[in-house]
Write a structure and sequence with these properties.
This is Two-component system, chemotaxis family, response regulator CheY. InterPro entries: Bact_response_regulator (IPR050595), CheY-like_superfamily (IPR011006), Sig_transdc_resp-reg_receiver (IPR001789). Keywords: Phosphoprotein. The modification 4-aspartylphosphate is found at residue 61. The protein is of the alpha/beta class and 157 residues long. Helices cover 44% and strands 18% of the residues. It has 6 helices and 5 strands, in the order E-H-E-H-E-H-E-H-E-H-H. The chain has helices spanning 13-22, 38-50, 69-77, 96-105, 118-136, 149-156, and strands spanning 4-9, 31-35, 54-60, 86-91, 110-113. It has a 5-stranded parallel β-sheet, with helices on both faces. Strand 4, helix 4 and strand 5 (110-113) form a beta-alpha-beta unit. The radius of gyration is 15 Å and the shape is globular.
Length: 157
C-alpha cells in the first residue's frame, strides 16, 4: 500500500489549520501535511520523495510572501517526479489572470475561493486522489472503500 500525502500551504496559520481540520475525514487513509510557505513545500516534497512517499495533492493559497501559490504550483508541475500530483488553488485574492495562469501553466485541477465549503473540498480531494492512484498505476484495492466510486467505475470500464 502506497503512502499517500496531501500537502496544504498557506502563510496564515489560522487558515492553514482550518484547511487541515476540514480534511480530517480523510486522515484515516491519507497523510495530511501543512506548510507555511512555498519554499517549505518544496523542501518537504524533496524529503517525501527521497523516502519513497507519494504526493497526491497540493492545496495552495495564492497570495503568500516570497513565492505565490501559482509560482509554487507551476514549479511543481515542471518537476517530472510530481507530474501526476494534483493541484488545488485555494484563495480569496487571485485575479482573473492569476486563475488563467494557474490553469494554463501550473495545471491546477480545481480552484476554490475563500471561504470554501468543507464538504466540497473533501469531495474534491477524494476525487483527485482517486485519479492520482489510477494515473500512477497503484493498486486501488487497499483504498477502495475511501475512493470516489464514480472515478473508479470510469477508470475500470
Amino acid at each position: 500500500m502506497e503512502k499517500l500525502n496531501i500537502i496544504c500551504v498557506d502563510d496564515q496559520r489560522e487558515v492553514l489549520s482550518a484547511v487541515v481540520q476540514d480534511l480530517e475525514p480523510l486522515s484515516n487513509w491519507l497523510n495530511i501535511e501543512d506548510c507555511e510557505s512555498g519554499e517549505e513545500v518544496l523542501d518537504l516534497m524533496d524529503d517525501l520523495d527521497a523516502e519513497g512517499e507519494s504526493i497526491a495533492v497540493i492545496i495552495s493559497d495564492h497570495v503568500m510572501p516570497g513565492m505565490t501559490g501559482v509560482e509554487l504550483l507551476t514549479e511543481v508541475s515542471r518537476d517530472n517526479r510530481f507530474k501526476e500530483t494534483k493541484k488545488v488553488l485555494l484563495t480569496g485574492q487571485a485575479t482573473h489572470s492569476d486563475t488563467i495562469t494557474a490553469i494554463n501553466t501550473a495545471g491546477v485541477s480545481h480552484y476554490f475561493e475563500k471561504p470554501w465549503k468543507a464538504e466540497e473540498l473533501v469531495s474534491c480531494v477524494r476525487t483527485l486522489v482517486t485519479s492520482y492512484i489510477f494515473d500512477r498505476g497503484f493498486d486501488y484495492q487497499p483504498y477502495h472503500e475511501e475512493l470516489d466510486q464514480n472515478v473508479v467505475f470510469e477508470r475500470l470500464r
